[in-house]
Specification:
The chain is of the alpha/beta class and 366 residues long. The chain has a domain of 70 residues. It is 32% helix and 22% strand. Strand 1 and strand 2 form a beta hairpin. The longest helix is centred in the middle third of the chain and has 17 residues. The structure holds iron/sulfur cluster (SF4). The site of iron/sulfur cluster has 14 residues, from loops.
């Protein structure tokens, strides 16, 4: 399914043409050859990121978020991985670019921050040494200048007494400080796009909030866009401009923070929101589990867990995304022409109660 397959309103088209995307992902499909067959981790997703904005990819563990963002700069090992589709960064196709080009973009124009700083830092070297090495890979500068830049970066990411901590080893820093150091590493190349994969998951709630604030500050200071991967809608609410909801390698819904939090259209998005603390469903969570990635359902990927599933949901692949308001689209059969979307979105415009509409949909489904 492509973004071009959707049915945008004229207003939405005008809006998306206002500024050229920094990153355009179209029809990205990443698979892995396994003994049990082809594992489809990401299955034809479209995502755009414009300069200066924060886009969050959100979904459960196993939804394909990490593979999707690692496919952008071809961090997925191939073989067994196979990446198809189009990934354009500043207009250049990264999937067909040669290795030298990808290496020059990776860590420079596009930088990654990963979940566990514990594994990303080398514990045999001081953090200062590691930063200086990273700086000198990017810039041909004398060691003294690289050292000054490293101290400045440590200072900018909030490491107190940066110059005196320069010669400390990773084990002498807390988990939150290590993640700050990893963010400093990512900033070495002055990237236009920072890809952050669950960067706060391993941190306690207080430190998590501090790191999210840091992302916001640095985004402005370094004039970067951020593509942020998380399973936590609470985190998304803090930082996102736009949200793409992934499930089993497919896009279920996309929209602004207000669209998703105030007018969620997809049953999966609604279920994720109900799992937020204080929304009443955090203990039971979403029933069932993700489908086998080597044998996904024929119809909507969410059908085996969806309380509203009807016959039409079990055939003809994932429903095309329907744009229900400018920039807000949903992949669900109940948004097709002639169906009543209030079945899956009870606060919808028809005012039909969920139970009545559900009954009506079942009785009229062919
Ligand atoms: S298409 Fe069907 S199964 Fe999928 S979310 Fe909509 S109602 Fe549920």
């Amino acid at each position: 399914m492509s973004e071009h397959d959707r049915d945008p309103t004229p207003d939405a088209e005008t809006e998306t043409r206002n500024d050229e995307p920094l990153l355009e992902i179209e029809g990205l499909r990443t698979t892995f050859g396994t003994d049990s067959g082809t594992l489809v981790a990401v299955d034809g997703i479209d995502v755009t990121v414009r300069a200066g904005e924060t886009v969050c990819l959100v979904g459960e563990s196993g939804s394909g978020k990490t593979v999707a963002v690692e496919s952008i700069t071809r961090l997925v090992q191939s073989p067994p991985g196979r990446i198809e589709g189009t990934v354009r960064f500043k207009g250049q196709d990264l999937l067909s670019a040669d290795e030298a080009t990808i290496r020059s973009i990776r860590g420079h124009e596009i930088a990654h921050v990963f979940q566990n700083p514990q594994n990303a830092l080398n514990h045999c070297y001081t953090v200062g040494w590691q930063l200086v090495e990273a700086i000198r890979v990017h810039e041909d500068v004398p060691e003294a200048a690289a050292r000054a830049r490293a101290i400045d970066l440590l200072d900018r990411v909030g490491i107190a007494n940066a110059s005196s901590r320069f010669d400390d080893y990773p084990h002498e820093f807390s988990g939150g400080q290590k993640q700050r150091i990893m963010i400093a590493m990512a900033l070495v190349g002055d990237p236009d796009l920072l890809v952050a994969d669950e960067p706060t998951t391993a941190l306690d709630v207080t430190v998590q909030a501090q790191i999210l604030d840091l992302f916001e500050e640095l985004k402005t200071e370094f004039d970067m866009a951020v593509l942020f991967v998380t399973h936590d809608l609470g985190v998304v609410a803090e930082i996102a401009d736009r949200i793409v909801v992934l499930y089993a390698g497919k896009v279920m819904e996309r929209g602004t923070v207000l669209d998703i939090f105030e007018r969620p259209g997809h049953p999966y998005t609604r279920a994720l929101l109900e799992c937020l603390p204080g929304r009443g469903n955090e203990i039971s969570g979403i029933g069932g589990s993700l489908p086998e990635p080597t044998a996904p359902p024929d119809g909507c990927r969410f059908a085996p867990r969806c309380p509203h599933a009807i016959d039409a949901c079990h055939r003809d692949g994932q429903p095309l995304e329907t744009e229900i308001e400018p920039g807000h689209s949903v992949s669900c059969v109940f948004y097709r022409e002639g169906r009543d979307s209030s079945v899956v979105s009870p606060e919808g415009p028809t005012g039909v109660s969920s139970d009545d509409a559900d009954e009506e949909a079942r009785s009229t489904d062919d």
